[in-house]
Automatic annotation (TrEMBL):
The keyword Oxidoreductase applies. This is KR domain-containing protein. GO terms for molecular function: oxidoreductase activity. InterPro entries: NAD(P)-bd_dom_sf, SDR_fam. Gene3D superfamilies: NAD(P)-binding Rossmann-like Domain. Belongs to the short-chain dehydrogenases/reductases (SDR) family. It holds the Pfam family adh_short. It comes from Kibdelosporangium aridum. Keywords: Oxidoreductase.
Length: 313
């Protein structure tokens, strides 16, 4: 099958990467009408790659994110022939650098008028010793929480005007073991990379709970999903026990992408709605997290705005 291509500027280094498109489809499907554009972070490996493989057949435009232009171009070239009519767009950014995230946001905003699905999947475990990014934050906290929050804030209005927007934050149930997002605690002499990872995921779950409340009454919904322990590089780095197949984890994430949600049913474990830790539902916890996040990102978070959120027609 021939693959035609256009060009997308690499937002990190200014080089060009390829945007692959398969042959036009013979017939449209319902999900393409309701969810035409999706972004998956951490798409070149593990769960993110498997999720991208599944989403590619269900959307018109799939933005696949990663740090390596060559890996992304190869992924796009693999996905496009198998998914006729879907534009697979590589977008490059290091989530450990706010400047990269900002360029990624601006690039997406320049090209697209709406975003229907945002899957914040990319994650890292902390280093063996306390490691700060060039922005001055603990590595896991920035990549696993601050960067997804920045992406969500920067693309929020594009998600809000979508016909049925969905934010999916990929988390880990290990967040229940820490019950805090205190980003200062990893910096003490007892720094533990697994604890730092769990704290970043606690923040992401509490952030999702805050989004759920803010988006009530709009067409935008937010969920978080624990896909289960999975045999990935991150799993091997973080935990001693083996994980399940990546395909099963991807199925769980796709379930979170497509499942209708009601009221505060936002925490998906596998394919079940479960009750999150009570701490993430506490308004003071959510407000403190939003305060810290807004100060770190030096921006007014759109989901904390006074008054009702505005939707597109």
């Amino acid at each position: 099958m021939d693959i035609s291509a256009t060009h997308l500027l690499d937002p990190t280094v200014g080089s060009e990467v390829r945007v692959a498109r398969g042959d036009p489809p013979q017939a449209d499907v319902e999900v393409r009408q309701t969810r035409p554009t999706a972004l998956v972070t951490g798409a070149t490996d593990g769960i993110g790659r498997a999720v991208s493989q599944r989403l590619a057949g269900l959307v018109d435009t799939l933005l696949v994110h990663g740090r390596c232009p060559e890996s992304l171009t190869a992924l796009a070239a693999t996905l496009a022939p198998a998914n006729p009519g879907t534009s697979v767009v590589p977008v490059v950014a290091d989530l450990g650098r706010f400047a990269d995230v900002e360029r990624l946001i601006q690039r997406i905003r320049t090209i697209y008028g709406h975003l229907d699905i945002l899957v914040n999947n990319a994650a890292t475990v902390g280093q063996h010793s306390h490691t700060l990014t060039e922005d001055g934050h603990e590595l896991a906290f920035q990549v696993n929480y601050l960067a997804p929050a920045f992406l969500t804030a920067g693309l929020f209005d594009l998600l809000l005007v979508a016909r049925r927007g969905r934010i999916v934050n990929v988390v880990c149930d290990a967040y229940r073991d820490v019950a805090t997002f205190d980003q200062d605690s990893p910096g003490n002499r007892c720094y533990n990379p697994v604890v730092a990872y769990a704290q970043s995921k606690f923040a992401l779950v509490a952030h999702t709970a805050s989004l759920v409340s803010a988006c009530s009454g709009t067409r935008l919904t937010a969920v978080c999903v624990d896909p289960g322990f999975t045999e990935t590089k991150l799993q091997r780095q973080s935990f001693c026990w083996p994980g399940g197949p990546v395909s099963a984890a991807a199925d769980n994430v796709l379930y979170a992408v497509t499942k209708p949600v009601h009221d505060r049913e936002f925490y998906v474990q596998g394919k079940k709605i479960v009750q999150p830790l009570s701490e993430v539902l506490q308004i003071p916890v959510q407000r403190q997290l939003d305060k810290v996040t807004g100060e770190v990102l030096d921006m007014s978070l759109p989901w904390t705005a006074t008054g009702p959120l505005r939707m597109g027609a």
